[in-house]
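Dear support,

Our group has been running a series of protein-ligand predictions, and this particular one with fe (ii) ion is the one our PI (initials K.S.) wants archived with full inputs and outputs. We had some confusion internally about which version of the output was final, so please treat the block below as the authoritative record. The input we submitted was:
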Amino acid sequence: MSEDFLPINGTDYVEFYVGNAKQVAYYYQSAFGFQPLAYSGLETGNRERTSYVLVQDKIRFVFTTALIPDSVVADHVKEHGDGVKVIALWVDDAAKSWKETTSRGAKSYFEPYTKKDEHGEVVMAGIHTYGETVHIFVERKNYKGVFLPGYEKWEPEYRPGPTGLKYVDHMVGNLGWGEMNTWAKFYQDVMGFRQLISFDDKDISTEYTALMSKVMSNDNGRIKFPLNEPAKGRKMSQIEEYINFYRGAGVQHVAMATDDIIHTVRQLIKRGVEFLYVPSSYYDTVLDRVGHIDEELKALQELGILLDRDDEGYLLQVFTRPVEDRPTVFFEIIQRKGAKSFGKGNFKALFESIEREQERRGTL
Ligand code: FE2
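Confirmed final output from the archive:
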């Protein structure tokens, strides 16, 4: 086997461009239990934008807003609403990562550069991916500061506790008609990823709507990017609805892993996170399909947690409603008990639930 030309240690951070970062940060603290980490804004000498960095175990989210109208952040929010701009990847050599990918056809977002402060230095470089989304390579082995140079420790008094979220399991991209294979090829040829799974519209369809999906993974499996494309059905695919409201391709959902989904989801519901509705009939037959589980079915049913099994074990998962007013970005909470797949057995129940919501939005 050839050597991995783009070794990645994991997701470094996910940056959202939003309309009001102060209030968004409060939502992720209060609702999801993220902890305050770092801040950049007027007080730190940043006159153009403000960023709040929040952390929960290995998950780092950055929420950035524009302070001036003439700003790429403001432009992004005007076009897409609140959404994911950056999927940052933690690497040992950012300059090499940029060189290997741009030489294979990636479009540069910015060339490698070194940023320093009294805590050391970070090398960063960026490339474009689908839509207006970008990947930033972050090399931080010579840095001891709280996040990145330019950021200060953020220490508000308000600190609700964590909810048990551990790491980013996967991040899904929604692409336009006919774009899935183009971007699967991009991740294969330009980033050195391999295809784990492919679903066609026969796997993922209901009576009304359909989609197709390919799951791409990097060499060590720490980065997994399912890529969706709408497929023709009798009514509008949820992917098409996303594309219409996001006005192009973008991140559909971020899946966050927990070791105790019952505890995590109970906390999230208490704190106001809204989940997709699962009909109680789902639980009448689910164990016929999944077999023995360690959890009590009653608790799962009460919280609307879904189950699926593959050759290696089973998984528990649940999906939030979109977390902004446009029906775009949402979150998945997942607990893996051996299973490495993505819940294919739940697609139908899930999509019927999404269609019920599309119906209410008048977008089915
Ligand atoms: Fe997912």
